[in-house]
Amino acid sequence: MTELSKYTSFHVGGPAQKILQVSTQEEIIAAIESAGDSPVLILGGGTNVLVSDAGFEGTVIRISNNSVESEVDACSGATLTIGAGENWDNFVLTTIKRGFAGLETLSGIPGTVGAAPIQNIGAYGHEVSEFITRVRTYDREKKEIKTFTNAECEFSYRSSHFKAHPGRYVVLDVAFQLRIGEMTTSITYLELAKKLQIDIGDKALVTNCREAVLELRANKGMLLSAEDKDSWSAGSFFTNPIISQQAADALPNAAPKWPLNDGRVKVSAAWLIENSGIHKGDEIGGARISTKHVLALTNSGTATASDIAALAKRARDHVQQAFGITLVAEVNLIGVEI
């Protein structure tokens, strides 16, 4: 049996009972139906998953379709329909080269287009939900194709209708609406504005924004590299907690806080971890807190999934004890608990 460590950015994961490689809609649906009632794991880039050392007792389906359809109008912009298996950052780069704007702050995020709406990926002031017009899926329960409008996707911070119903919907393709232009919208994220050497609220060239985002991500160990084991991770392991205003007021003034429209407050998971007694470079077995960014748990070369889970549990427990806040994993845990 094939070890799933070959297909994950953590480079961990035990054997798969069955692996199917598919590229067309027909192949995707046929692979799902061939699995019957047994568990199915959809694996795109393998960049947001921690798979147990025991592996996966079911069918692993690797989607690599990269169909692209586009309609461009000088007034309304571009509507792009992208297959679920397309590499996300390759897609972002293609949009910029074609003169479209919108996705530049989401540059460098690992994974596939199909995973983007499930997690509602986001970075540097924007989320992918801002640009999605519809998501076409295969409903495993009803055994039919189901298309979701943006509203029906029920997007929220790092979540969606698909994430709330794990295993039911398999994304086939995603449609995006982008505008035509060389300039970004107003930059609202302070770290990015400083990198671009502009003021908050100013705009920048889309190409310059992408370059700045990639540099920021690289400095945090958030760009995957086969040679750099400090990047053998799934990016940010935890989401930024969203807490009540009262709980936010109880945190030190130095803690980064972002008020939300519903009265709650988003706080920095990285700050909580760093100020709970966890440090860059901390290790359990072969698992290590990245030397570049505490939100990235990495495989130093010899880690097992159990090592990474134990390190994640240590970080979560330290934050709970120090601040009374429970961190939630952004990474999908397959046969693993923390």
From TrEMBL:
Pathway: Cell wall biogenesis; peptidoglycan biosynthesis. GO terms for cellular component: cytosol. Gene3D superfamilies: 3.30.465.10, UDP-N-acetylenolpyruvoylglucosamine reductase, C-terminal domain (3.90.78.10), Uridine Diphospho-n-acetylenolpyruvylglucosamine Reductase, domain 2 (3.30.43.10). The keyword Cell cycle applies. Pfam families: FAD_binding_4, MurB_C. Its cofactor is FAD. Cell wall formation. This is UDP-N-acetylmuramate dehydrogenase. It comes from freshwater metagenome.
